[in-house]
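Researcher: Quick sanity check before group meeting.
Model: Go ahead. Protein one:
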Amino acid sequence: MQALADRLPRLRHRSDWQSLLYLAALPALAAWQWIHGFHLLLYAPMLFLTLGIGVIHHNHTHLRMWRGRRANRVTDLWITLLQGHPSFVFWPAHVANHHRHRHGPEDMARTYRFCGDTNHLLGYLLHPLQAAWVLYPLFLRWLAKLHRHQPGAFRYCMAQYAVWLGSWALLLALDWRKALLFVILPQLHGLHWLLATNYLQHAHADGSAGGRQPAGQLNYARNFEGWLNPLLFNIGLHTAHHEHPHAHWSALRGLHHGQYRARVHPALNEGGLVPYMLRVFVLGSLLPRYRSRSLMPPATPN
């Protein structure tokens, strides 16, 4: 029995049972509605779970969920199926680009690259499309490099594409209406939010120095401290994550309050995500006093 137990996959952190619950709940809700029909009380939490899957994707890239390689590879492919896009893309776009340059002038998807230094509803809605436009060539260059120097890794990335596109082809062949409603549209919703999160966390923050700011200031990211954090794996505590990218998500609350909150400009420490979006994106579109103010130096080029 002990030998069998030793061969079973083991989580690095007990709190990742929450991640496993999300990874199981999303396809279960989709499958139930595929069989029994659309139900708003199931579809709405399914859309929320697509946000959680994006955060799990992010977290699993920074710190692998399992202690064994095989379990991590299976999780990569499962996330690819649920996310509707290969999971490898977080390496070139997020780790090697965003975390390296911290919203600075060399960050390819920096928010102030597109249409100036903005923070409004249209910018939030468009940012995923703008970011995808500049990031996909990065993915292709990454794949070309892997093909030349690491053919095994290249084949693994291609397997993720095969799993994703093959799943879409199969489901569309079974019933294209159900595939669109219960699988593809929720996936696109999650992918949009995943890319738009960059706008929420960095628009109007100071990206001029790429996180290397004087006097110990850390004003390149916005933090959200509201009640959604435990449900979305503390993704709102973004400064602590940038400063400790390999820290488990369950440790970010302590790091944020213990080390980084006081070093961030007060305007970048927000309460809840939803009140922030309502204030800045909805009320701010009508009344200037509700809009955020940029912390970027005026002379910084776009």
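Researcher: Fine. The other one?
Model: Protein two, sequence then structure:
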Amino acid sequence: MFAEVKKNSRTWLSVCLSLTLSVFALPTLAADALNICAGKSELPFSNDQKQGFENKIAALIGKTLNVPVNYFWWTNPLTLQKDMEEGKCDVLIGTDPNDPRVLVTKPYYRSAYVFVTRVDREIDVTSWDHPYLKEKNFRIGVMPDSPGKNMLLQINRFDDMFDYFTEIQNFQSTRNRYVHVEPSRLVNDVANMHLHMAMLWAPEAARYVRASEVPLKMVNVEDNAKKTNGEKIPMHYNVVMGVNKKHPELVEALNGVISKHEAEITAILKEEGIPLLNLQ
């Protein structure tokens, strides 16, 4: 009887140990390195000095998977699909869930576009419906080829801000080409009152809003923007990791990191000052 109880105890202990190990087991990666595609000069996301918050997330992934992190530094995102197909890199740390160039992981954060204003100007705007935005002398800066540019077209303000677009783009067209615009430029133009307001993706703005010597505020844009035909223009987005289509096994490994290290990833995002929304 005692021997049977002892045998059953060992069996139960083995089951418990097996379950514990399965819960806490680290995801594994068949490859001998994590090959990251990242912008060479795309702060606050990444740069070749590894000063971006996505560089920090990449380092966490490499440590978790116990592999070195190698970088392919791109200067033109329009060639990224070709770069991946040629095997130059395998993982994008941050992209849209609908990015057709890549396979995607589960979302690892959700954030919003934000309106950035000077605190002392007391501009209280949270939506594209606000009448301020329709006034021709109210200067609002947005990034080229962004939802903000789309909204300026919808409310007939694009022509009013055309001079600003050409200025920040160094008088170059973005048609079929990539023209890099520093998000810090728009934040600084709010601080120096060249603009009343800027609308930026919160992750690209947060670092510079916090660092400004002039007190600035950053307010999430309400997710109710629409085109004149009623079609929604989203202001809130999930963010995923993108994976080379030739390496689908990476999706599972990265999903494991996202699930098991959610707290550490969130800490990096919060340290950056990024406002986080509940994932949808």
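Researcher: One line on it for the slide.
Model: The first helix runs from residue 2 to 24.
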